[in-house]
Each structure stands twice: as C-alpha cells, then as structure tokens.
Design goal:
Radius of gyration of chain B: 18 Å
Strand order of the largest sheet of chain A: 2-3-4
Helix content of chain B: 25-40%
Shape of chain B: globular
Number of domains of chain A: 4
Number of domains of chain B: 1
Number of strands of chain A: 5
Order of helices and strands of chain A: HHHHHHEEHHEEHHHE
Largest sheet of chain A: 3 strands, antiparallel
Number of strands of chain B: 12
Structural class of chain B: alpha/beta
Order of helices and strands of chain B: EHEHEHEEEHEHEHHEEEHEHH
Strand content of chain A: 5-15%
Number of helices of chain A: 11
CATH superfamily of chain B: Divalent-metal-dependent TIM barrel enzymes
Oligomer: heterodimer
Chain lengths: 307, 294
C-alpha cells in the first residue's frame, strides 16, 4: 500500500510530511453522523490511513484516536462561524447554514492565526457557490458582508478625532478628510440592518432576556417557531460604526454614501462633494443645509480622524 | 521556581485567566488578584473594546501573555505578521515572560486552531527549539513552553513526552509552563505514570504552572477546562511544587465559566497544596541533565 505518512521523522522535511498527512485526516469533513468518514478519498479504509500515522492503545484504534482531533477541529470552526453569523442562520435555518459553513471551510480553511478572521471570505464563497443559498443568494451575500463588517468595526483601530481646529489654515480646494479605520460603508441590495436587528431581538427573547418575565415565556415559543420576515429587495446604504465600544448601524442617503466613499478613497473634500452631488435635484440652499447636517452629524459621531 | 530567568525573575503568586464573562465584575469591583493571564491572540487587534478593557486591566493588575497559535512545533516558519502584532502587545502589557504550547497546528499557512501533538523525535525537537529561539530573540522576552494534553501517539516517536520536552527546552534554553492537568490527562490517555513525567523534566526551568479541570469519557479524557480541579491533579501540583519550588500558578477555566468569585476561590486552593509542599520541605531544584544525547 502506498505510504500516506513517513515511516520516520528525521528531518524538518519529514516533519512537514507527517503534519500534512495528519492535517488531511483532521481537516477532512465529518460524515452525516459527525464521525470521521470511513473511506479515504481514494477508496481505501480511512483506518488504514490512520494506522500509518498513529498508534492504537488498549482502548482506542488509531482511527478513533485521530477521530478525536477530526471532530474537535470541525466542532470548533463550525461553532465559531455559527456564532458570527446569526443573520445567515436565520435565513437558511441551522441545517442549511451548517452545510454552507462546512463547504466554505473545506474550500477556504483558516489562513489566520485567529478565529476572528474565519468569515472573511464567506461572502465571496456564497457568490461562487449560489446553489448552497438559493433562492436567497443575494440576500445571504449581503448578510455575510454585513456580519463581517460588524466584526471589523468591533476591534479595528480608532485614530484621534478630527476637530474644527484641525481646519485652521486648511486650503479648501486641497482639503482631504480621513475616516476612522473602523467605519464600514456598505452598499447593499437588501436592508439587512433591520433584518439583523430583528434576528437579535428574537434571539434575546428566546434566551429569556426580556425585561418582562411574564411575557417572556410565551415569547420564546413564538420566537422559536418563526424566523423574522425576509426583507424585500431594496438598495440600501449603511454605515456600520461604533461608539463607546457599542456597534451601531446608520442608514445613509445615497449621496451621503457616495461622499463618504469618495473621502475614504482619498479624494479632496471638493471632489467628494462633487462625486456625491453631481446633479443636485434639491434647491441649492436646502441642499447646503442637508449636507451641513450630515457633516455635523458625522463629526459628532467621531467618524473623521486625523491622518 | 519562585523567580528565575525564565519568568523574568518575578514571583507572581496565584492568578486566573482573564475571561469576557468576568470583565464587568473585575472592572467595577476591582477584586484583589495576584495576576491575570490573557490569551494573546484575543488582543492582537488594532482597537475597540478588547484593547480598551485590557488597558483598564493593565492599570490595576499584572498581566502575563499566554498564546495559542505560535505553533512552535509546526515545520513551517513563524508567521511574521503574528509575531509583529505579538511584539506590539508585549510592549503594551509589559509581560515578564510569554508562554505558548509545545505543539503544532498550522500546515503551509493553514491554521487548525487546535493544539496538535508532536512526534517525539530529535529532528522535531531541533526544529521546535530553533523556532522558540527565533521567537524569543524577536520578542526579546523569555519564552515558556507548555506541555499539551494529547489523545494520540505517533509510530515515529523515539522518546517519551517528558524526554521530548526536556530535549526541546534544553536546546532552546527556554522555560517550561508546566500544565499539571495536561500531564494527568495525557497520563490517563497514554497509560504512563504522571509522577515519572514530573520527576523527569528540568525543574529549574519551570517558569509557571497551570491547573485546570477536565472531562472524563468512557475511553479517554478531554482537556475541557470546564470543571473544578480534581484531587489527583492537586496532588500532582503539590508534588510539582515540591520539585520545582513555589511557582507562579494559574487556574484555567474556559468553558461553562462560573462566577468570578467561584473561579478565584478554586484558584486560591493552590495555597493549601503549596503549604503541603512546604511542610514536605522543598529542596532546591537541580538542573536536570538532558534526557538524550544531541
């Protein structure tokens, strides 16, 4: 039988071979019963593959010993993704979500030292494999982007806030503003911000976190029996940001989204305003007031920072 | 050892792991705790609540960094981005030493997020020690490597786990984070005497100890950190203290985490066993001779 793992480890190269062999066993998807698949990819018994790597003991076969790691790996990464994606779970249901998660992690296993980054490529995978989320692929893609944005907002950097004093001596023609690194700007095909809030509310109710304990009990059974209504398609612009450590979502008008996106791309303030307001439909004084309100609001929220 | 070059010549006492469910309690009540151990990778971020909480903790408490993803035993080279972030965090925490596991967990840049067991061979020990030295040099900190719980053994192994641990730390000239619970778990899973393990490691290199709870299944034990420490593990801890001296000790409780007071109370039980060890007169630890020839 072709050797699957080296017979000895007497060099770094052979150490790498052994680790690759064990990793192939550990990372292979589990079967429907959440056990190690009994046949290897080439049809031979997985037990024969495992026996080249591990020793049996008086209680467990080599396969059973490696199966402990195989199960722990999948339980750990699936649990992590499960926690990070409440919106996707609500749309797909737990079973379809788990199928999606397993297929995703099989194609895109973690390339980071931290589990935080596990969902980073999920939106891309959903677009690559639409059958796993059909007929809600576009909604699921938006949700994956939105849920990843929440992770980014939670612990990305914050720089010193830009103040009015920083405008002193600034040339209005050349002025460039900077957005906080944590601020995420999303253009979506679905209003998933509202959907996520509904999901969160439902989960809190099902955990009995309602302040009214009398109402909480019947709410649990209602909440478990219904998922929030899926949102209708509607172009939506959202800023995901944080304030005092708490994550918030803020709807943006399309023009405001364009201005902020242009600022993020390094355009001057003048260019950013031109990008957002190319052909103003509103009367000029009204428009000036609206834009002034936006900027005041964004300043208050601390979205602008020093370079 | 109460203070040695492997723990930055500190004498930290009994600590507990800093965990999210306890943040509010710690920040609002400011309980007296000798020190906190943080999981480094949970704080290798650029900002937000994790670092805000950490800074508030650092203003009040001593913190030691414990990692889960350096994977000294992986054949591949260390991840430079990981190391860069780790170094920045060590500057922030001023950790006197840094610990991570004697295991592997990444292959060709793909991460398992698990602590996978090593094949106990001289070649593996050489590669592992080389990486520990690289990391220690880059971070400019003493490193302590922790023995892991394991559930399998390799055909290719040439020595016992404690011989391998000795081989690695002698070659790397680094410290040991002696996890007494992990020794117990592995001793049951692989049918060896845990006291042979304790007797066989270089005691003068022990920088820190871990105690924890585990879960017993029909045919094996899993290192779950979700229970109180059982008596046989405390007895091993007392024996380890007799051999190594009173050492910075940390209780790990990572799942089904009870109240802060319950976790802290469990950790402080270590004092009883330290007292027992003292009654038995702690000898000065001897420098253990390398278990195998180079």
């Amino acid at each position: 039988m072709r050797r699957f793992a080296p017979a000895r480890v007497d060099s770094t190269a052979r150490l790498a071979q052994l680790q690759r062999a064990m990793w192939r066993v550990v990372s292979r998807p589990l079967n429907a019963a959440s056990r190690t698949q009994r046949r290897w990819t080439d049809g031979r018994p997985t037990a024969a593959v495992a026996a080249q790597i591990a020793k049996p003991n008086d209680r467990l076969t080599a396969l059973e010993r490696l199966e402990i790691y195989n199960r722990m790996y999948w339980f750990r990464v699936l649990d992590s993704l499960y926690d990070d994606c409440p919106g996707l779970r609500a749309v797909l249901g737990d079973s379809r979500f788990m199928n999606l998660a397993e297929a995703y992690l099989d194609k895109y296993p973690s390339r980071s030292f931290t589990l935080r980054n596990l969902p980073a490529r999920l939106a891309r995978f959903i677009r690559e494999q639409p059958r796993l989320t059909a007929p809600h692929t576009a909604l699921c893609s938006d949700l994956a982007r939105f849920e990843w944005a929440r992770i980014e907002v939670f612990d990305s950097a914050a720089r010193p806030v830009f103040t009015i004093d920083d405008l002193l001596d600034a040339n209005p023609k050349k002025l460039r503003l900077n957005l906080q690194p944590y601020l995420q700007l999303l253009q979506l095909d679905y209003p998933v911000d509202d959907f996520i809030l509904a999901v969160k509310q439902r989960e809190e109710m099902s955990r009995g976190e309602s302040s009214n304990t009398v109402l909480a009990a019947p709410a649990v059974s209602r909440a478990k029996s219904r998922r929030p209504r899926l949102p209708p398609r509607a172009r939506t612009h959202v800023a995901v940001h944080r304030l005092n450590g708490v994550i918030y979502f803020k709807r943006l008008e399309p023009a405001a989204y364009k201005i902020l996106t242009a600022i993020r791309r390094g355009r001057t303030l003048e260019q950013a305003l031109a990008a957002g307001l190319p052909r103003a439909k509103r009367p000029r004084p009204e428009l000036a007031r609206v834009v002034q309100d936006w900027f005041q609001n964004w300043m208050r929220l601390g979205w602008f920072c020093r370079a | 050892m109460p203070a040695n070059r492997f723990n930055g010549f500190t004498d930290y006492g009994i600590g507990i792991g800093l965990r999210i469910p306890h943040y509010d309690h710690i920040l609002s009540r400011q309980p007296t705790v000798d020190w906190f151990e943080i999981i480094s990778e949970n704080f290798l971020v650029d900002g937000g609540r994790p670092l805000e909480v950490l800074d508030r903790i650092l203003a009040q408490y001593r913190v030691v960094q414990h990692g889960v993803a350096l994977y000294f035993g992986s054949a591949e080279a260390p991840n430079r981005d990981h190391l860069k972030r780790l170094k920045a965090l060590t500057r922030r925490t001023k950790t006197p030493w840094l610990s991570d596991h004697l295991c592997w967990g990444s292959v060709d840049g793909t991460y398992s997020h698990d602590l996978l067991p090593m094949p106990y061979t001289v070649a593996a020990a050489k590669r592992t020690a080389e990486k520990i030295r690289q990391v220690s040099d880059y971070l400019e900190l003493p490193i302590a490597v922790e023995n892991v719980s394991s559930y399998t053994e390799f055909h290719v192994s040439e020595m016992t786990e404690w011989e391998f641990l000795t081989e690695v730390v002698e070659r790397a000239d680094c410290g040991i984070l002696l996890d007494v619970n992990n020794i117990y778990v592995s001793s049951r899973n692989h049918s060896f005497n845990p006291y042979d393990y304790l007797d066989g490691v270089p005691h003068h290199r022990v920088a820190q100890m871990h105690v924890a709870g585990h879960t017993k299944f029909e045919k094996y034990i899993l290192d779950t950190h979700d229970h109180p420490v059982i008596d046989p593990v405390w007895k091993l801890y007392a024996h380890a203290t007799r051999l190594c001296g009173v050492t910075a000790t940390l209780l790990e409780w990572d799942d089904k985490i009870p109240s802060f007071d319950e976790v802290h109370h469990e950790a402080l039980k270590a004092h009883e066993f330290i007292a027992q060890a003292r009654e038995a007169k702690i000898p000065a630890p001897r420098a253990t001779v390398r278990a195998r020839a180079r």
